[in-house]
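Sensor-like histidine kinase SenX3: structure tokens wanted.
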Amino acid sequence: MDDSIENIVSGGNEDDLRFEVESLRSALDSVSQAVFIHDSSGGTYFANQVAKELENARHEEAGLMRAINEAVDSALNGRFKEQSFSIFGPPKRDFIIRTTSVGERLALGVITIVDDLTVRNQLDTIRRDFVANVSHELRTPIGALGLLAETLAFEDEPSVRQRLANRIQNEAFRVAKIIDDLLDLSRFESEGAASISRVSMPELAMEVIDQISPAAELQRVTIDLRLNSEDTYVLGDRGQLRSALTNLIDNSVKYSEPNSSVLVEISQNNSTVTVAVVDHGIGIPQKDIERIFERFYRVDQARSRQTGGTGLGLSIVRHAISNHNGTIEVDSREGAGSTFKIHLPIEPGANQ
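Answer:
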């Protein structure tokens, strides 16, 4: 089949022809689309690597190959077209099939190009959902700000005015928090671990706990730190790791019941540093665990709004840990609390 491509390459001496053939094969094999070249009777002159994979694929692609053959038949009768085709899976895959003649003479044959649009369509869906979610999340506090400001303008009672002003301030903080989290998430996704340094995990955890403790005390929640070793280091972006710990510990505090505690435990083995955050709060239903790292996903919508959550915290954690080639795991029972564990590669040569 591949040898037949020589028939559509310009003439010349044998070495030139061989060079043209190999160059054309290499160029067509390097593209992401499937490329078929058919003769005037519909036989296949050439198929690049992606096209061969379609020809040899499992039964789900059989319908796609039928659609390609039908497009070729139509083209050989002078009806060139562009058509969409979907394999509904799961997972769903989307393709577009285009046909054109070889040069300007249909008698030479037909070129068929098949483009897999699956990833592109998935990204478009993610972008649309992201814009819709951001719009929804911002609309509520911005609408509240307008209503509160309008009420404040016509209110004379000092105590009521103060209460309205406090609510305006809270809604403004909520908008600022959403924007800050969006900027963090965008930066983590685009930059990776940008600023690498030697980070003491116990020191970092103590800083985060000191930051969160005042809010925890207001909720009557204590935060305990347990260290297996004070000399535990990783190589990483301190800002991203701090953000990950802050979101994990803050999340545990927010969803803990009054007069309970949150435990932060740091341990290590020869290759990994593990940070466990354990709470005894409301827990996570099993059906929701797989989705909690999605942007804007909330297990308890009402409680999340009450606590000021943006729905972005765990997504930030996931990206920050992924940027450090780490992993995160969750163990939770509804009504009994949750344990989040992040595992990070240990600094080479450290803790020896």
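The CA atoms of residues 126 and 132 lie 10 Å apart. The longest helix spans residues 118-153.

Cheers.
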